[in-house]
Automatic annotation (TrEMBL):
Enzyme class: hydrolase
InterPro entries noted in UniProt: GDA1_CD39_NTPase
Pfam families documented for this protein: GDA1_CD39
Involved pathway(s): Protein modification; protein glycosylation
The protein's name: nucleoside diphosphate phosphatase
Reaction(s) catalysed by this chain's protein: CDP + H2O = CMP + phosphate + H(+); GDP + H2O = GMP + phosphate + H(+); UDP + H2O = UMP + phosphate + H(+); a ribonucleoside 5'-diphosphate + H2O = a ribonucleoside 5'-phosphate + phosphate + H(+)
Physiological role: Hydrolyzes nucleoside diphosphates with a preference for GDP, IDP and UDP compared to ADP and CDP. In the lumen of the endoplasmic reticulum, hydrolyzes UDP that acts as an end-product feedback inhibitor of the UDP-Glc:glycoprotein glucosyltransferases. UMP can be transported back by an UDP-sugar antiporter to the cytosol where it is consumed to regenerate UDP-glucose. Therefore, it positively regulates protein reglucosylation by clearing UDP from the ER lumen and by promoting the regeneration of UDP-glucose.
Species annotation: Cirrhinus molitorella
């Protein structure tokens, strides 16, 4: 089966702006007023304080599908989603206010006080729609003179293959409105910090470079109250402790010299559980699945360079009961606790898996040993660098190359290592990103600008083709056969997905990266208490 188009909720960008602007500019315009049930108008209008990224999939679905009078049920769902996304920010407000009370940071002062007021305004709204808001309210409502409309958060993702900055802009239009995510500014540099294990000061330059982007993006008067946080993943987890520490210290010094607000513990190595859970929070937030008592969520599959994560909300108790105890994590949101299946496999990221397949992971004699694999073109031989080390790698010149042999090699890296959750054979939807996405694009499975939906069997089919015609695909990457075979093997033999399992390959939703970073900024503003 070839690539399919994404469903509506992830195709929003091309269709939404015009439809959304109609609603935001004139929520009671005749057409909409005639066709939209009054409670929804109220809810949408109440929520219309900015461009409201998180409402977009909901609005999109509603506008495109619900203009006929038939869909009262869908309207009810939409309204409840709006309400529950508000709840997320109500909780944020509550947390922020406690920070205000403990005087942790000047940063929180006026934004958070206003959000606390919003919390009071919305208290006891469980199972209700937001209150009716007259159309003219936004134009004439009195506001405090210095009311600040926007605030920002900076999250650095120090990954094994690169360092990225995510600058999130939130808007709070009115003291009684809750803040919403307006947009994300994203920038990335390569290689990752771990490549500077022996020269942390040089590694620090990449952070300085990215901070310049933050200074350009965020208005000067906001700098002092904008938190800057860096979380490192597999690259630093795999380094010797003292080398990782030296890099983190370097970053902390750079942050301290910056004009931004540096909270406690702002530079850390994140654990694998949080990486998986926060990516789940991001994707479910962006796709409109995150609300109180939600059962209909999507799973996530993240394939990094050094580690890989799987996270989903089990529907069946058996999935929880049959999982190793440290594969279940709890997270608090909307006054309830979500019990997630999550695990991060360190050493099973795509690049680490290449090294393992080649027998090079942790090997000595790197200056003379040549690491060979039947997953590489026979005549290929090159020096290849990862994580600050250089490896001599090659195909097997007088041997065989191809899918079957390659699959057998790769099986050693997966079999018996990756746990198969009970429920994964069911019909849950999984969003897959990072290297799943990149390799699907490079091998021509999906379009790079739009993403797409594939089945697990599509990866297998394309892996066979790439491995059995290595010369054709060599200009794209000599590692493409190895990578595609690894992805196939990880999905099938590792997690135990069926050939027919559908994967939603997505890099961005409404122009926001599908990465743990957004979940992490939520976690910063409101401790989600992952345990
Ligand atoms: N915001 C992000 C972060 C990573 N990635 C991709 O994720 C892959 C590697 O992730 P990573 O370097 O963070 O690896 P880990 O440290 O998580 O193992 C690369 O393909 C990146 O381009 C992305 O597309 N967008």
């Amino acid at each position: 089966m070839g690539a399919k188009a994404l469903p509506n909720s992830t195709q929003v960008p091309s269709l939404l702006p015009s439809a959304l602007s109609v609603l935001l500019i004139s929520p009671l315009s005749t057409q909409i007023a005639n066709r939209t049930p009054p409670p929804l108008i109220s809810a949408l209008h109440h929520a219309s304080a900015g461009s409201h990224l998180q409402w977009q999939p909901l609005l999109h679905l509603y506008i495109l599908k619900s203009f006929s009078q038939q869909d009262r049920a869908r309207t009810a769902n939409t309204s409840s989603s709006i309400k529950t996304l508000e709840s997320l920010f109500q909780e944020t407000a509550s947390q922020a206010f406690s920070c205000l009370q403990c005087r942790q940071a000047t940063y929180y002062n006026h934004h958070m006080y206003n959000r606390y007021r919003a919390l009071n305004h919305h208290s006891n709204m469980d199972n209700q729609l937001p209150p009716e808001v007259p159309v003219a309210t936004e134009a004439v409502a009195p506001r405090p003179v210095n009311f600040s409309r926007t605030f920002y958060g900076i999250m650095f993702d120090a990954g094994s293959t690169g360092t990225r900055i995510h600058i999130y802009k939130f808007i709070q239009k009115d003291p009684v409105e809750l803040p919403v995510l307006d947009n994300e500014m994203y920038h990335a540099v390569k290689p990752g910090l771990s490549a500077y294990a022996d020269m942390p000061d040089v590694g620090g330059e990449s952070i300085r470079q990215l901070l310049k982007v933050a200074k350009k993006t965020i208005p000067k008067e906001q700098w002092i109250q904008t938190p800057v946080v860096l979380k490192a993943t597999a690259g630093l987890r795999l380094l010797p402790q003292e080398k990782a520490k030296a890099l983190l210290n370097e970053v902390k010094e750079i942050f301290d010299d910056s004009p931004f607000f540096v909270p406690n513990n702002s530079v850390t190595i994140m654990n694998g559980t949080n990486e998986g859970v926060l990516a789940w929070v991001t994707v479910n937030f962006l796709t409109g699945h995150l609300y109180a008592k939600t059962r209909k969520t999507v799973g996530i599959l993240d394939l990094g360079g050094g580690s890989t994560q799987i996270t989903f909300l089990p529907r069946l108790k058996k999935t929880v009961l049959t999982a190793p105890s440290d594969y279940i994590a709890k997270i608090n949101m909307f006054n309830s606790t979500f019990e997630l299946y999550t695990h991060s496999y360190l050493g099973n990221g795509l690049i680490a898996a290449r090294l393992a397949t080649l027998g090079a992971l942790g090997a000595d004699g790197l200056d003379w040993k040549v690491f060979r694999s039947s997953c590489l073109p026979k005549k290929f031989r090159e020096d290849w660098s990862f994580g600050g080390l250089t490896y001599k790698v090659s195909g097997i010149p007088d041997g065989f190359a191809g899918y079957k042999l390659c699959y057998q090699e790769i099986l050693q890296v997966v079999k018996g290592i990756v746990h198969q959750p009970f429920e994964v054979k069911g019909s849950s939807i999984f969003y897959a990103f990072s290297y799943y996405y990149d390799r699907a694009v490079e091998s021509g499975l999906i379009d790079g600008s739009r993403g797409g939906t594939v089945e697990v069997r599509d990866f297998k089919k394309r892996a066979k083709e790439v491995c059995n015609k290595m010369t054709k695909y060599r200009p794209i990457s000599p590692f493409l056969c190895m990578d595609m075979t690894y992805i196939t093997c990880l999905l099938k033999e590792g997690f135990g997905f069926k050939d027919s399992t559908v994967l939603q390959l997505t890099k961005k939703v409404n122009n926001v990266e599908t990465s743990w970073a957004l979940g992490a900024i939520f976690d910063h503003f409101h401790n989600l208490n992952i345990h």
